Amino acid sequence: xxxxxxxxxxxxxxxxxxxxxxxxxxxxxxxxxxxxxxxxxxxxxxxxxxxxxxxxxxxxxxxxxxxxxxxxxxxxxxxxxxxxxxxxxxxxxxxxxxxxxxxxxxxxxxxxxxxxxxxxxxxxxxxxxxxxxxxxxxxxxxxxxxxxxxxxxxxxxxxxxxxxxxxxxxxxxxxxxxxxxxxxxxxxxxx
Length: 191
Description:
191 residues; 8 helices; elongated; disordered C terminus
């Protein structure tokens, strides 16, 4: 019993116990608290709580890992979530090897990455998760730059073709004829 221990031991035990209480979620605090707790008993309750739920957590985490799709997530967020699920599976003794993690990363990519998703698995040696993540992040930067460039080009083409069917000096501005019905101060404003 803690009262039979020395003062130094009790102080150390209380310090560790308070640290445990301060770091666990409120729901877990309710599970492990007790009037006669020592650091060891609190830790044992936590250990038991997580080990008893291991199989149940694995049942839910496995499909979540295998079904994760990138959707509209940015690449860094998608990789982070996939790696977090793999780590959570490892915590319940269902370790995901690096090759399986990389394959799932590629399987879940959005159509935007379909070309690199076909090229990466052909590399010899097969890329690690970290290597694939790095290449996909670079690909995202390239695709974003291309999309911005195409957007600017489309905007310039759209502005150039909005002359309203005038005689076509090619400048894209209003024609020099007096056929415009808008008052001079309102030309060029959207109605």
